[in-house]
């Protein structure tokens, strides 16, 4: 500590200034209020929940910032900016990730000290993204109709209050039918073959917890499969968007074919005689 004091005395003597007169550089600022998605008709809904930006400026990664974000930047002049879209894996706040299927936004911005530049980036799906399942529930004869547990009366189609479009999947649990396990009619074979990334996107609102996952088959012709469940979601009153990361389930199992599956349980039928689950815009995406 004493040596540090001697250094300051020497600097003041040599340069004629005090420590208090040393000025800090004035940063420029980037303000990013939101990050949205644009899709083609073949890619389905543009619904997204991009919660963070992962920011690179002039080739230097500066970190991840929760939206809306106001970020100080010490570089000035024409600077190359890269914005990667961040989501929360499985809807968990503590698991931020760059969403691998959204294209990074790259642009050049002219930065000036003390000035704020507002960016409202729009991303799209990477060209190589493949959609194994894309179910918007626009018709009652949708693809989520393989009832593994539960009666047909549990399953319905809601055209009165969908998230968007003409309809949504409706599940109505009761004391007589407190459990449903529902899978896709189609089995998918290419998941995890070229890339480890496999995600399930959907919009939902629900009065009970729901878990999602896969039914895996060693051979696509097998009649019996293994149920591999992932974290799910808790009850919510308003429509939400979630991204389920199924990559580890696919990589760990290494099976030949998979169905998407969900399970919902009315845990206390005596205290809550009925409960409803609404789902919309299922997308199973992979490379």
The shape, in one word, is elongated
Which topology of the largest domain does CATH recognise? Jelly Rolls
Given as residue ranges, the uncertain stretches (5+ residues, pLDDT < 50) are: 1-16
End-to-end gap: 57 Å
Percentage of residues in DSSP E strands: over 45%
Q: What structural category arises from helix and sheet content?
A: mainly beta
- SSE order: HEEEEEEEEEEEEEEEEEEEHEE
Average residue-wise pLDDT: 92
What Rg do the Cα atoms give?
25 Å
In total, the number of domains comes to 2
Biggest beta-sheet profile:
6 strands, antiparallel
User: What share of residues is helical?
Assistant: under 10%
Would you kindly provide a brief summary of this structure?
This protein has 287 residues and is mostly beta strands. It is 7% helix and 46% strand.
In words, what does this structure look like?
With 287 residues, the protein is mainly beta. It folds into two domains: 100 residues, Immunoglobulin-like, CATH 2.60.40; 157 residues, Jelly Rolls (Sandwich), CATH 2.60.120. Helices cover 7% and strands 46% of the residues. The chain contains two helices and 21 strands. Strands 11, 13, 14, 16, 19 and 21 form a six-stranded antiparallel beta sheet that branches. The termini are far apart.
